[in-house]
Write the structure tokens for this entry.
Amino acid sequence: MRILVVEDETVLADSLVDLLGRESHAVDLATDGEQADELVAGNDYDLVILDWTLPRGPSGLELLRQWRASGLSMPVLMLTARAALEDRVGGLDEGADDYLVKPFANEELLARARSLLRRRERPISALIADDVELDPRSRTVKIRGEVIELPPKELGILEYLLSRLDETVSRTELVEHVWDDSFDAMSNVVDVMVYRLRKKIDGGQKRKLLTTVKGQGYRLLSRRA
């Protein structure tokens, strides 16, 4: 999944990018309100982690208000040092989906992020296509009953395809949801990653799950064709 972190404290920002990256998410970073607004205007994020106080441009709360007024519905997890009840209520009333007071434990942030991501996609505990299963909590993948270790990007591709079962997913959509803003969209990395993932899912199987739709993209079937 693709996540935007909006945080101006360098140490915390770098820590969040690293933490979420280790969970196989593509993570972009904005350090002020203007940069955050530009990134949201140009990308489709699955989650925004938004600091309340920002050094330049609109504040986190002002950004949230603008995004909701313009119809943007991506989940937003608000981060703030403000612990007062009225502040929490204010953030939620402006459209935040959840609220986390600094300092916080990494595991709590990850748990809240997973909850918001699941809420946006499918309200189920496991993502399943025939004999392929991904547990979004533990990030564990089983193929034909065997636990398989996938590299982060292959895991991200599988997770997104599982969330779009039986639909054709374009190469552009995979780039937008699995890679960050620095990715070179002209490279053949996506095709290579899908090829490697296909070998693990369908290697030796007569009936295939992961198929290529010529000129359009890829499709993960709910049942082997």
Observations:
- The chain has a mean pLDDT of 87.
- Helices lie at 10-21, 33-42, 60-69, 85-93, 106-120, 152-163, 171-178, 189-202.
- Residues 2-120 form a domain with the Rossmann fold fold (CATH 3.40.50.2300).
- The chain has two domains: 2-120, 127-220.
